[in-house]
Specification:
Length: 180
């Protein structure tokens, strides 16, 4: 299991213990802690259908897991190409802060962290540094070392999305912003 999976599942609060599981089906693997979500969708679903929740101890559950695919925004018009090493350095410096804020000029705290490939009405968005570090860790686990494209809405409260294509899966990382 990827290190990021373990961090997300372990971070689930006692208030929502159902989220402290990894959801496996014949089509996808998914998990969330309500702040981030990871969906790894198989390009070719397995023939035998199954639907199971397993916690970190390997104990299955029969509870109904939330439908995470519906959380993936389809109308994010802004595409930002992140320089992973620079964003990682800026985020680590600010990891004790309650948020880091990406401005429309591609900066966080005055430091350029990437370029907009497409910009349409975007002003800013803020994220918890912990979740940004999880995104960057997941990007590295997915083979992305230098750059990733993050899809942003022009509304600062809508989730941001990063897609990673792997040989056998299409992976999606969703990160919810901090409201300012």
């Amino acid at each position: 299991m990827k290190k990021t999976f373990t961090k997300v599942v372990k971070s689930v609060s006692k208030v929502r213990p159902l989220l402290g599981h990894v959801h496996y089906t014949n089509e996808r693997i998914e998990l969330t802690d309500s702040h981030v979500a990871i969906i790894e969708e198989l390009k070719t679903p397995l023939e035998d259908g199954f639907d199971i929740l397993i916690n970190l101890e390997g104990v299955p559950s029969v509870a109904h897991y939330p439908e995470l695919k519906r959380l993936v925004p389809t109308d994010n018009k802004n595409i930002f190409v992140i320089d992973i090493p620079i964003l990682e350095a800026i985020t680590k410096i600010n990891k004790k802060e309650s948020y880091i804020k990406l401005e429309s000029d591609g900066t966080i705290s005055g430091q350029k962290v990437g370029e907009f490939e497409q910009l349409d009405g975007f002003k800013y968005i803020a994220f918890n540094p912990k979740y940004v570090l999880w995104l960057l860790e997941y990007a590295k686990e997915s083979g992305q070392k230098e750059h990733i494209k993050i899809e942003l809405n022009d509304n600062a409260v809508m989730p941001a999305v990063v897609h990673f294509e792997q040989p056998e899966t299409l992976n999606t990382f969703i990160i919810t912003p901090v409201r300012l």
